[in-house]
Write a structure and sequence with these properties.
Elements lengths: L23 E2 L2 E3 L7 E3 H4 E4 L2 E4 L1 H9 L5 H10 L5 H14 L5 H7 L1
Antiparallel strand pairs: 1-2, 2-3, 4-5
Helix pairs in contact: 2-3, 2-4, 4-5
Length: 111
């Protein structure tokens, strides 16, 4: 897995694009840090006017591995209020697999 981190500031305008290269198995997207975590391709990769983007719950899972950052916490607070129950359940299950000792986001989503 390759990672290129440009800046640790909130992106206010489209001045760069981040690319993630991940594997897939059949019709499933495989999470790069734990391939036991899968998401159906049509739920992991969404489209806006034919432009593909990674589903918010998958992005949050990637962000969960980083040190506490205000922008990731802000993303979690805003995005989870707009996610459907299926997306939230997938994120909780994935966080529980990644962090058997618990993760703060998982606990908050279970309430």
């Amino acid at each position: 897995m390759f990672k290129c981190d440009i800046e640790h500031v909130e992106q206010k305008e489209l001045d760069y694009i981040e690319f993630l290269f991940n594997k897939r198995s059949g019709s499933h997207f495989l999470y790069g840090r734990n391939e036991d975590i899968k998401r159906e391709i049509d739920k992991a990769i969404l489209y806006y006017y034919n432009i593909p983007y990674l589903a918010p719950e998958v992005v949050l899972l990637y962000n969960s591995a980083e040190k506490v950052r205000d922008d990731y916490e802000h993303d979690f607070m805003v995005v989870t209020t707009k996610m459907n129950d299926d997306s939230k359940a997938w994120l909780v299950n994935s966080l529980d697999l990644c962090y058997p000792d618990g993760h703060a986001w998982s606990s908050r989503l279970k309430k």
